[in-house]
Amino acid sequence: MAAHVAPARRIRVSGGVSQLDGLCQRLACISALPVHRRDDPEASARGIAYLAAGCPPQWNHQAHEQIFPPRADAALLGRYRRWRELMRQATGT
Asked: Strands across the sheet with 11-13, in order?
């Protein structure tokens, strides 16, 4: 699939769990991509309503974003590599 898809430049998160700052920061560190979190935690529901209403121009919602930049975190990356290795061993892949 990676051969047919442009590389990701950022990760956008929404929903309840996206309100956890630590999770967003760790995701940025592990992925080496900036994580963008909108100020609207239910962006998915808002987007579905927007599409269902036919994309009316008066619904132009200007949301603000908080950005979690990737940072070097050797301890986190070490734990992540160890977890991936254990998963590989457990699944035999």
From this structure: 11-13, 35-38, 65-68
Residues 15 and 18: their CA atoms lie apart, in Å, by 6
**pLDDT tens digit string along 48-70?**
888 898 888 887 666 788 999 99
Domain range spanning residue 18? 8-91
- Say if 3 falls within a structural domain: no
Q: How many Cα atoms are found within 13 Å in the side-chain-facing hemisphere of 66?
A: 15
> What's at 83, amino acid-wise?
W
pTM value is: 0.72
Q: Is 36 helix (H, G, I), strand (E, B) or coil?
A: strand
